[in-house]
């Protein structure tokens, strides 16, 4: 379908103004490039989209039940039984409605209140992971963003409508797929409006902008400032291509929000009449009572949350009213973190193993080690993210050293968790024979280089070679560099030994490698006190 001349002129004029503004007022002119009849014919011919047809067919055949979705989430997320149940019901209800609207288009205009969801809970308990796995199971486009990056329209910062455009990008530009997707906004508690004398453009302003998106509105896919998108649309229209959809309706887009809401339990506690009473009553009383057991105290109150608590927290009543489904997640204790390592699919432990598998190294781990890791991760107070922190601390040097070695398997034990550097050195020492020929070649090369530079032959004994290799492993220094640092100030002493003993080659044993200066001093002292030296001194005294 070709655009008429008046529409084309209006589009050209808008693009021209934008370009002139961008280039500092320099005039911009357009000229029409004619297209061949064949190109116009090919462009205007409509072609079916198999991906879109398959997606619509799956939505029309949607039959997933809440318990089936819950069972799927159990494979990936440990704990959070209540959150899984609530999310499963809300998701299945939403896409059942989508299925009915696709089968019976007349139902689109019927009143239906979307079950937008709010998930509360501390960091690292699986909020994002739950939503991501839900989107993957349903097979719909998914977009995640942090609420803190948005501001009210017209101010510096992101526009909430960009979320919808990002959803279209996630669907590879297919609006038909994107209009049934999921938008997930994290850290929603950070946009609670705080009373102030100025205009709150990143709190209340963002909440107001989200209102229309959460129910139903048309969002322009090409903004007035998106010159590239405007040019592409214009060229497509001039070629006579099938007119692309320039808007997307948010009627069937499900919005899911989440946040830690650290200060909300105090508000709920006061509402329940359990707060402190008196002139000195303040937030310190709640923090003091629940700081030692945040998991039990705060989680309990979050499960009792009501609409009035969100309003007191700083949310607009209209905003909270459009999020009817609310559920709180529980903190993860040591047992939960251990189950993440042992039971969850795609766990952090599997990721750590995969990292080593990339270098053809197999990693085993004992039950005792996993228990220690879970205990240390719980102390981090960051949920499942604490597991990643502990694994990184334990394995960082293993990942650096082992890929350059000939070691192809190792085991993480409880001792490895407590003393990772010592465990790594012991592993390298136990497998030093794998590089024996390489070490010997480096030692012999140093012996030759020492003779060339100092005109004195040295020879390392077997125990001297063992000690050199051991120190090379422990200090992470190559043999030549280690030898240079050990013997650079010993040339004079070694030559004195050779002269006193009348030998052309000085043998360096373990003692020389461990402490060269002390070994040389001891050797010189022994030579001076040797019987042959004493008899020579006696003869000299008798002559006199």
Give a written overview of the molecule:
The protein is built from 28 helices and 11 strands. With 544 residues, the protein is of the alpha/beta class. The strands form 4 sheets. Strands 2-3-6-1-7 form a 5-stranded parallel β-sheet, sandwiched between helices. Strands 4-5 form a two-stranded antiparallel sheet. The longest helix has 23 residues, at 81-103.
Topology, please?
Elements: H1 5-22, H2 37-44, H3 50-60, H4 66-74, H5 81-103, E1 117-120, H6 127-138, E2 142-146, H7 161-170, H8 175-178, E3 182-186, H9 204-214, E4 218-220, H10 227-238, E5 247-249, E6 254-259, H11 264-271, H12 283-290, H13 294-302, H14 307-313, H15 317-321, E7 325-328, H16 334-342, H17 348-357, E8 362-365, H18 367-380, H19 385-401, E9 409-412, H20 414-418, H21 420-430, H22 436-454, E10 457-460, H23 462-475, H24 479-487, H25 491-501, E11 505-508, H26 510-514, H27 516-528, H28 531-543
Parallel strand pairs: 1-6, 1-7, 2-3, 3-6, 8-9, 10-11
Antiparallel strand pairs: 4-5
Largest beta sheet: strand ordering: 2-3-6-1-7
Q: Which class do the helix and strand fractions yield?
A: alpha/beta
Basic shape: elongated
Distance between the termini: 126 Å
Rg, please? 37 Å
> Low-confidence segments, ≥5 residues, pLDDT <50?
33-47, 288-295, 534-544
**Could you tell me the number of beta strands?**
11
Helicity, in percent? 55-70%
**How many individual helices?**
28
Major sheet size, sense and barrel closure: 5 strands, parallel
Instruction: Give the DSSP E fraction (strand runs of 2 or more residues).
Output: 5-15%
Overall mean pLDDT stands at 81
């Amino acid at each position: 379908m070709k655009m008429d001349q008046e529409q084309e002129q209006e589009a050209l004029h808008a693009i021209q103004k934008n370009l002139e503004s961008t280039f500092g007022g320099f005039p911009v002119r357009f000229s029409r490039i004619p297209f061949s009849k064949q190109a116009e014919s090919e462009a205007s011919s409509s072609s079916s989209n198999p991906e879109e047809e398959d997606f619509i067919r799956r939505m029309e055949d949607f039959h997933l039940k809440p318990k089936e979705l819950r069972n799927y989430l159990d494979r990936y997320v440990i704990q959070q039984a209540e959150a899984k149940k609530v999310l499963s019901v809300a998701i299945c209800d939403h896409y059942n409605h989508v299925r009915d609207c696709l089968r019976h288009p007349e139902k689109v205009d019927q009143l239906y209140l979307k079950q937008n969801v709010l998930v509360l809970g501390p960091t690292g308990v699986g909020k994002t992971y739950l939503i991501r796995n839900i989107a993957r199971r349903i097979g719909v486009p998914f977009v995640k963003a942090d609420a803190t990056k948005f501001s009210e329209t017209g101010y510096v910062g992101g526009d909430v409508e960009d979320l919808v455009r990002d959803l279209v990008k996630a669907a590879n530009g297919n609006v038909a797929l994107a209009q049934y997707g999921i938008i997930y906004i994290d850290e929603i508690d950070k946009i609670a409006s705080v009373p102030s004398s100025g205009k709150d453009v990143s709190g209340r302003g963002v909440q107001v902008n989200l209102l229309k998106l959460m129910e139903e509105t048309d969002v322009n896919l090409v903004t007035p400032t998106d010159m590239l998108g405007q040019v592409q649309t214009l060229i497509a229209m001039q070629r006579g291509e099938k007119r692309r959809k320039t808007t997307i309706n948010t009627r069937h887009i499900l919005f899911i929000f989440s946040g830690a809401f650290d200060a909300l339990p105090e508000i709920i506690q006061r509402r329940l009449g359990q707060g402190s009473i008196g002139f000195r009553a303040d937030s310190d009383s709640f923090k003091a009572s629940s700081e030692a057991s945040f998991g039990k105290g705060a989680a309990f109150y979050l499960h009792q949350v009501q609409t009035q608590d969100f309003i007191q927290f700083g949310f607009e009543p209209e905003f909270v009213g459009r999020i009817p489904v609310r559920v709180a997640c529980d903190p993860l204790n040591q047992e939960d973190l251990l189950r993440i390592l042992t039971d969850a699919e795609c766990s952090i432990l599997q990721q750590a193993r995969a990292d080593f598998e990339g270098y053809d190294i197999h990693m085993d781990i004992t039950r005792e080690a996993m228990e220690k890791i879970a205990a240390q991760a719980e102390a981090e107070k960051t949920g499942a993210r604490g597991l990643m922190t502990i694994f990184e601390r334990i394995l960082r040097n293993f990942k650096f050293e082992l890929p350059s070695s000939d070691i192809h398997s190792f085991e993480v034990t409880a001792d490895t968790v407590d003393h990772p550097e010592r465990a790594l050195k012991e592993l390298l020492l136990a497998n030093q024979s794998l590089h024996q020929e390489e070490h010997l070649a480096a030692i012999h090369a140093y012996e030759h280089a020492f003779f060339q530079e100092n005109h004195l032959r040295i020879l390392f004994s077997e125990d001297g070679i063992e000690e050199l290799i051991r120190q090379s492993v422990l200090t992470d220094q190559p043999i030549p560099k280690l030898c240079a640092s050990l013997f650079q100030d010993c040339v004079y002493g070694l030559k004195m030994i050779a002269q006193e003993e009348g030998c052309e080659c000085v043998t360096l044993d373990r003692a020389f490698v461990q402490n060269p200066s002390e070994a040389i001093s001891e050797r010189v002292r022994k030579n001076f006190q040797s019987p042959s030296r004493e008899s020579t001194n006696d003869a000299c005294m008798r002559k006199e």
